[in-house]
Design goal:
With 196 residues, the protein is an alpha+beta fold. The protein is built from four helices and nine strands. This is RNA 2',3'-cyclic phosphodiesterase.
Length: 196
C-alpha cells in the first residue's frame, strides 16, 4: 500500500505562522468558494513533489537527503495573497514566499541530489508559495472587488518563516491532517547533522 501513496519534500510552517494563516483562511472563506481548504497543520512550502515511492527508493532517498543537513538555517518573508488559474475562477489560492537566494539554492540542491533516482527537473521555474485553498467550488465567477479587498487587507502583512528543517511527507488522502511526516532533516550548518 505504501507504494501507492504519494510523497513530497517541503518546509513546514511554525505553529505561529499556521495559526496566523488559518485566520487568513477564515476571512477568505467568507467570499471565496473553494472546495478544499488546507488544514492548518498541513500548511507548508513544497520544494519537490515525488509521487509514489517504493520502500527501497524511500530508503535510498532518506540516505541521500541527510546530506542536505549541512546547509545553514535561514529565514524568508511570507505574505500577500495570489492565485493560479483563471482570474475569474482560480484553481489555487496561495500565500507568497519571497524567492530568497538561500531558498532557491535549497530547492536546486534537492533536485540535484535526487536526479540519479529518475526524478526529472521541473520545467517550470520554482515559485515558492503556501497553498491555502484549491478547487474552485461553483460556476460563479470571483468578484474582483471582493478579492482585491482581501489582497489589500493582507498586502503589507509580512511574516518571517524560519527555515531550519525540511520534511519528507507522505500524503494520506483519507486523513485530516493528511500530510504525515516521514522524516525530518534539520539544517545544522555543519557536516555532522543527524536525522530525527
Amino acid at each position: 500500500m505504501s507504494q501507492k501513496l504519494h510523497y513530497f519534500i517541503a518546509i513546514p510552517l511554525s505553529q505561529q505562522l499556521r495559526q496566523m494563516y488559518s485566520s487568513w483562511q477564515l476571512e477568505c472563506k467568507k467570499v471565496l468558494p473553494y472546495r478544499q481548504w488546507t488544514h492548518r497543520d498541513d500548511l507548508h512550502v513544497t520544494l519537490k513533489f515525488l509521487g509514489p515511492l517504493s520502500s527501497e527508493l524511500l530508503r535510498k532517498l532518506d540516505r541521500t537527503l541527510t546530506s542536505i543537513q549541512h546547509m545553514s538555517p535561514f529565514s524568508v518573508q511570507t505574505g500577500d495573497l495570489g492565485t493560479f488559474g483563471q482570474p475569474t475562477s482560480p484553481r489555487v489560492l496561495w500565500i507568497g514566499v519571497d524567492k530568497k537566494a538561500e531558498l532557491l539554492e535549497l530547492q536546486k540542491r534537492i533536485e540535484k541530489l535526487i536526479l540519479p533516482y529518475g526524478f526529472l527537473k521541473e520545467k517550470r521555474l520554482f515559485f515558492p508559495h503556501i497553498t491555502i485553498a484549491k478547487k474552485w467550488a461553483i460556476k460563479q465567477k470571483i468578484k474582483n472587488n471582493d478579492f482585491l479587498a482581501l489582497q489589500n487587507k493582507y498586502k503589507n502583512q509580512k511574516h518571517v518563516l524560519y527555515v531550519n528543517k525540511i520534511v519528507l511527507y507522505r500524503v494520506q488522502p483519507k486523513c485530516l491532517p493528511k500530510y504525515e511526516k516521514v522524516q525530518i532533516y534539520e539544517l545544522s550548518g555543519d557536516n555532522n547533522g543527524t536525522t530525527n
